[in-house]
Write a structure and sequence with these properties.
Elements lengths: L3 E6 L3 H12 L4 E7 L3 H11 L4 E2 L2 H4 L7 E4 L6 H10 L3 E5 L6 H14 L3 E4 L6 H11 L6 E9 L13 H4 L3 H16 L3 E9 L4 E2 L2 E2 L5 E8 L4 E7 L13 E7 L3 E5 L5 E5 L7 E4 L25 H13 L7 H20 L3 E2 L8
Parallel strand pairs: 1-2, 1-4, 2-3, 4-5, 5-6, 7-12
Antiparallel strand pairs: 7-13, 8-11, 8-17, 9-10, 11-12, 13-14, 14-15, 15-16
Helix pairs in contact: 1-9, 4-5, 5-10, 8-10
Bound molecules: nicotinamide-adenine-dinucleotide.
Nicotinamide-adenine-dinucleotide (NAD) binds next to helix 1.
Length: 364
Amino acid sequence: MEKIGIAIIGCGGITLQNHLPGLALCPQTRIVALCDSDPATLQRASQQCGVAACYTDYTEVLKRDDLNAVVIATPNVLHAPIALAAIKAGKHVLCEKPLAMNSGEALEMYRAAETAGVRHMTAFTYRFVPAFRYMAHLVKSGAIGQPYHLRVQRFQDWGQRSLGWRQVARMAGSGELGDMLSHRLDYAHLLVGQMRSLVGDLHRFHDARGGQASDLEDWTAIIARFANAATGVFESSKLVTGRGESARSHDYCEINGSEATIVYQMSATPELHMGRPGSGNLETVPVPREFLTWPGSPRDPSQGDPLFNFRYDQNFEFVDAIVKQRPCVPSFLDGARVQEVMDTAIQSARERRWLDVRYAVPWK
Ligand SMILES: NC(=O)c1ccc[n+]([C@@H]2O[C@H](COP(=O)([O-])OP(=O)(O)OC[C@H]3O[C@@H](n4cnc5c(N)ncnc54)[C@H](O)[C@@H]3O)[C@@H](O)[C@H]2O)c1
């Protein structure tokens, strides 16, 4: 079979850390081109993966005959224009999160991809964490009974250091909400389902970071009611002093139901903590072997840092969906639904009141 030709558009941090090593584990693919507006970044990526075809203009990349799919890993403002151009050219698209600048853009991307019949995927990478996958499996198979509460926290300590384009509204759309909480809003949809209403808040403590103006929030919180009556409490911050900033910093998700509590915490050890009615403490539950990699992934889970290696399964999922001509998980629809929640939270914070969450595409 001919290899799937992939181009990476945006060759900064996440491409070097996730997409290049992830695609290197997919023998059905060939990276045919790299694109970045910054020549030095382009050169670094080219050296890392040995791909010589380098472009600074993505419209030129899309003209290549050997191109089947693109990975978009640019600042958020460029996701929609690049994805729409790629879809128009008939290419499959894996796009970084948050999918777009707002839900209008995200829905346009979803509808365009569906109409064109191309594969579309949002890079909600934390769906691929083995312990989180096992948690989702247990919840879906009824282990917690009736869901009561979802509790999510992402705490990092960035102080006043620069966040680059992430601290600029016209580049990022939102701050902490899109950067860190978007992944966890996706958890909420997966674990509990659609939200009915929410109240959100955003706050910026620092108007400058690294000597440059910041016009976005460094803290956000949402309280939500789900359609099934469960409640959700979400908090995410870049200013949790002493917590560190890496993948090892506090990343917590707890669900409480009538039959069990399950606690997931990002950790190098694949395990959950579970509480049963009346037990009074949480027991440690190891993640079964079959959850250590994504179904079908050729990755050896014992290789590499467990805080990072699961991320490569995201690229496998994209490629596998192209090969098997089936929908990607998670799709642009998942990305658009998170964006609808984010838009509602921003509006709620602005208007200082509870709002209903209105999803444009009905839930099945
Ligand atoms: N899924 C995850 O866990 C995860 C983690 C980190 C970042 N991200 C997302 O990935 C995206 C990129 O983040 P990053 O941390 O790699 O940022 P980054 O700044 O390190 O890289 C972005 C790159 O895009 C390039 N770029 C800017 N304009 C361009 C254009 N017109 N054409 C081509 N390239 C252009 C920049 O030069 C830069 O090299 C963001 O959307 C971010 O939210 C996702």
